[in-house]
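During the reporting period the student researcher (J.K.) took over the structure-prediction task from the postdoctoral fellow and processed the backlog of single-chain submissions. One of the processed entries is reproduced below for the supervisory committee.
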Amino acid sequence: MEGPPDVPVGGVQQPHGGEGRSARRHCSPERAERAERPTPVRSGPVTAGRGVTALASDAAVLWIDPAAGHRDPRRAGRRSARRSGGTRASTRSAGRRVTTTRTEGAVQDRGRHRPPRWSRLAVSLVAAVLAALVVGLATGLLTGRPSGAADNGDGIRLFCGAGLIPATPTEEANWMGGVVLDFTSGAAPCADPAPSSAGVLLGAAVGGSAGPWSLTRLGWLYLLAVAAVTALGVWAATAAGVGRALLVVPALVPLAGPDFSRFFLSTYGEPAGLLGTYALCVGAAAITGTGPSHRAARGAALLLVAGGGLLAATAKTAYAPVMLVAVLVCAATAVTTRGGRRWSRHVIGPAVAVAVVGAAVLPVGAAQQWQARNYAGVNTHNLVYTLLLPEVGPEAAAMVGLPPAASSGAGRSYYPDGPAGVPGADVVAADPDGIRTAAWKTLATHPAALLRAVGVALQSTQGRDLDYLPRERWTEDTPRPTAVAPVGEQGATAGNLRGWLGGMRLPWWPSLLTALGIAAGLASVRIRPEGARALARTAGLAASTALGVAAVAVLGDGYFEVAKHTWLAAYLLDVTALSLAGAVLAGVPTLARRTGAWRTGR
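J.K. obtained the following structure tokens:
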């Protein structure tokens, strides 16, 4: 009785007995002799008996495309076997069992390429040092010339809770013409500080000290945090190959510019939001560059994504879209469990997503209540008078319950002159929640006005430099601004805002970049090179988050200080642009090969 083909330990598949007899009976002697010869079966990148040249070739393939080592070979092998009617073989190679599928000479290896642990640790350490240098040079901490973001009056919400008093003649830090770095610690905290993760980090930097205190201590804390996030993200990404460390580059490069890292030397909530968003981008890049079987790597990446989203949303409620994206990324991430069934890979990611939502409920709710308690009237005034009335028209006043004369105050924000003399401002102050809800409903029924508002928000990201917030250190010789609250072109009046927007070069670029990033993310399922696919997905994630941050900014506070409120969206658009450029570069070799094959007719 004839049985199935045997596969000895040497990895040589013997032909079926019937096939040999058939070949001898119906073929020429030469063909019959060839049919009797054993057919070797290749067993993947590491196979006993293979030459040095073949092994070097496989190593080069895995370096260029590390995902070739972590694709699920069982599924690929079964699909190939079904298509070609091939057989599967099992052998032992290099001290491990390797299962192969023979299909017209093509073999899939179940073994996974794992870079050496020491190389991953070394690359992670180098990346952390580079990240520290980037932030240290951008903030001036390493050069002895600190560059920060001057206070516009928001800083006291946090530093009063940490028991800090500015070391200035007036004991104030806002609108001093420079960044106040020197404080006195040890004072009694104020009664109602803003609930924020930025305040927690500020308190950690202060510690239990009493006496002179410098804001540079907070800057060093953020620098170390960026380095730690980078190290963990690179360690996770390199599980699929050392070259995957480059996936973190689009998130890190924008921090080298002068517009983002300087906020690490400030008492705003923005730096904690930036740190959380950076962790989200780094963790998402590590997820897109690895596979479900990289359990430890994806666990670390999920930690970065979840922690980053939670940190950003609790820094400022306006950064809630960052947490929403983090939750979606966690819920969609698959992680295999040792010995688990196929469905078990979809347990860890959703569980982390649920944990993030549960952890955010109390702090985000407390921050929202604080905002409503202190600034509900201000925010609603800015929404109605700087956005709704200018974009929808005078008829919007009646739609939200304001007198017709309210349209004469269109374009005037709450600051710096207050609501005095603005028709209908008293109605807004009496019922800010009801007026805000009515304004949102009105915008929902006027989609063209809503789209224009979001377009203005995206365009305002080009004002990321925020030149009305000085970056130089304040000294006793620094002249104080003559204006009471110099909010710049982005705030006080509609005329100044439109003039500022009209003077921009390429005003359509941020909107186009957002659309390209989202399109790349959606099209990533059709992108073949693994590196290009990962970068395209990072671009889609960053662009979607930027769109959400920009929309929440204008729907929450209108056009007042719109460039500061969309500052985080500007960082995300830089990540989008760099990711798109990287995806194009990573896809060029594949496109060139396909083009060459098409021209030669192969």
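The committee noted the following: Residues 117-366 form one domain.
J.K. will present the remaining backlog at the next meeting.
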